[in-house]
Amino acid sequence: MAARLSLLVVLALLAVLTAKADFDEQFEVIGDRDHIGYKDDGNGGQEFSLELDQESGSGFKSKNKYLFGEFSVRMKLVDGNSAGTVTSFYLTSGESSTHDEIDIEFMGNSSGQPYVMNTNVWASGDGKKEHQFYLWFDPSADFHTYKITWNPKNIIFEVDNVAVRTFKNYDDLPFPTSRPMEVHATLWDGSYWATQHGNVKIHWRHEPFVVSYRAYHANGCVHSKNSSRCPDGSDAWMHRELGDEELDTVAWAERNCLSYNYCADGWRFPKGFPGECGRK
Fold first, then answer.
1. Number of helices and strands in the chain (H, E)
2. 103, 80, 118: which is closest to 202 by C-alpha?
3. Measured at the alpha carbon of residue 51, what is the angle toward residues 163 and 212, in degrees to the nearest 5?
4. What is the pTM of this model?
5. Pick the catalytic residue: 47, 51, 70, 101?
6. Which is the catalytic residue, given 47, 51, 70, 105?
7. Annotated catalytic residue 207
8. 250: alpha, beta or left? (left if phi > 0; alpha if psi -120 to 50)
9. Closest residue by Cα to residue 135 from 258, 12, 266
10. Quick one: which of 91, 153, 228, 247 is 20 to 30 A from 180 by CA?
């Protein structure tokens, strides 16, 4: 029995070391490495977890930069009272005043209240293009897949292979086409804005807050110096636009799940809505 237990301990340690090595090969740490966990997901893959406490949040970013691609991950969000927390999966070119960014963010809420999934696009420093959704399931009960497809024609947001939003490229409007971006995943304290416009703060008695990531997938054109190298088969996503059936799922999500649409916020845009609003 003791020998068997020792073997199980060794195997568990090897799984952790393998997961950590896989993580270090793909990502750089954001924040405190002690707040990142590694383990085997039980299906031959790796699972990474991020923790948030009063000491620090945590995150990671890809070592590669991409100029177009499709990016997905399976996530299980913070359960219970997650008010004030922000969990994210996004692409960004940096923090300059002219940066590009494509966001999926989850704004936590009090126990029993639904999460808000916020999607946003920044192009040449121009943002404020949020669509926010109440999901049709509890994202903290199990793992679900969140995906961003980014190509010169449009940006597509999907949840469990269901398209919920498309953001199109119009020739006369800003769109992220020239700045390579890294993939980021973070968990942080967003009390000042995340839950009910910042009226509900984080409750530290529930710490540590934990979010888990599995099955990270990046299939994009890797940018190096002044050129990008696209993988075989990239045509499948490089020219992808939504067909009628997928546009129907976007319409369904807008009817049944959309809680905020910047194109309907006249108070925020008293001088007129952004140029893409109202276009097809």
1. 3, 16
2. 80
3. 35
4. 0.92
5. 101
6. 105
7. no
8. alpha
9. 258
10. 247
